[in-house]
Amino acid sequence: GFLDNRIAPKAYAYLLVNNSRATFATCLFKDFQNEGNYFQRALERMQSVADIDIRDPKEFGGYINFFLPANPALDNPSMIKHGQVLYVGENAGFQDALWGFGLRYAMLSGYLAAVSIKTGLFYDDLCDRHIRPCLETSLTNRWIFSILGNWGYRRLLKKMSKEEDTIKALREYIQTSRSKKLLYQIARRWYKTRLIDKQCMHEDCNCVWCRCGKDDQHNYAKSL
User: Fold this and answer.
1) Which of 132, 100, 127 is nearest to 111 (CA)?
2) β strands within the chain, DSSP E
3) Which of 50, 57, 143, 193 has the most CB atoms at less than 10 Å from its CB?
4) What single-letter DSSP state applies at residue 56?
């Protein structure tokens, strides 16, 4: 992974390799109209540290789907549609706001959906109890690094390089704490959805992150 606001502003870039096939992407939380420039810088950075023979490259794009489970006090959307469809994983907005990936949340929310179906327990309540605290902490961590920038990334990486067990150290960092619960009250006010049109059907659209509907007020997604 790569942490540098010059190639992935307020986010990260990553390289995944499996069976001689690679996926390289850069994620942005701002300045979306310049995604091509950021990707090119990220690609050059990656090629400076990894010897990869790129053949037949294919472009792709998308957006990070993050929001919190239902909470009437905050007017957050329900994870249940039409009284019977239970949304899980990234489709429900369950992924880490700092690092992006959400495989663990996909498995956990799938399990909670099964529990809800089997026992009759309310799915939103299960997600609120078992998933929301972790997502709130991840949003707080994202806010912290949006303030600290590259200096914060350098400090984190330097600290992790001295740890014998990096996974354990990172796990402790992402755990909920009293201080992060307090900071979350700031972070949730800082966060605003930047998604304009989740299901772009505009003709000849080539937006990595759709901006075609930017003048259509009804297309703005609901924020936290």
Assistant:
1) 127
2) 13-18, 21-26, 80-81, 85-86
3) 143
4) S
Per-residue pLDDT tens over the stretch 171-186: 877 788 889 999 999 9
Give the separation between CA 212 and CA 203, rounded to whole angstroms: 9
Mean pLDDT across 26-30: 85
Question: Whole-angstrom Cα distance, residue 153 to residue 133?
Answer: 23
pLDDT of residue 56: 87
CB 33: neighbour CB atoms within 10 A? 11
Read off the pLDDT of each residue in 199-224 and give the average, rounded to a whole number: 46
Show the tokens assigned to 19.
Answer: 């069976």
Domain residue ranges of the chain, discontinuous segments joined by +: 80-190
Q: Please check the confidence at residue 213 and state whether its pLDDT lies above 50.
A: no
CA dist 4 and 29 (Å) reads 12
Site of tokens 């949304």: 87
Contact 123, 78 (CB under 8 A): no
Q: How far apart are CA 212 and CA 205, in angstroms?
A: 7
Rounded Cα distance, 76 and 16, in Å = 33
**Helix 123-130 × helix 103-119 angle, to 10°:** 140
For the cut 60, the answer to whether the pLDDT of residue 216 exceeds it is no
